Description:
Layout: H1 27-58, H2 60-70, H3 73-100, H4 107-135
Amino acid sequence: MADASSKPVARPQRPLSPHLQIYTPLINMVMSILHRLTGAALYFGTLLLAWWLIAAATGPAYFDYVSSWFSPWYGQAVLIGYTWALFHHMLGGVRHFIWDLGYGYDLRTVDQLSWGSGALSLIITGLIWLGVAFARGGF
Length: 139
């Protein structure tokens, strides 16, 4: 048995684990982080959606009260953010489904799918809210 009073054995120098200061953020890394963040945002946004639906089922007075929370600019910003999070998360899921099928693993396709899902989520969100604006009679 080793003597407890003996000198500790020097450990060999081991490389430090690379961290965000070393890695250059790639688009698929950013999309993975955004996918997780949008999933969390959808959780809280769905609570707001449930509140709105319950208010619609409760009656006109309570529905008007709940709708008044979504009418100002900050309420509209939350709704636009929820719409973007919904489509970004959905398109990220489609991207992962394509990978689960065994396709799109070359770096060029990974980048195209990542950039495409990000851009398409913004385009779809913009088109939906342009349609909402026109249905209300303009901006």
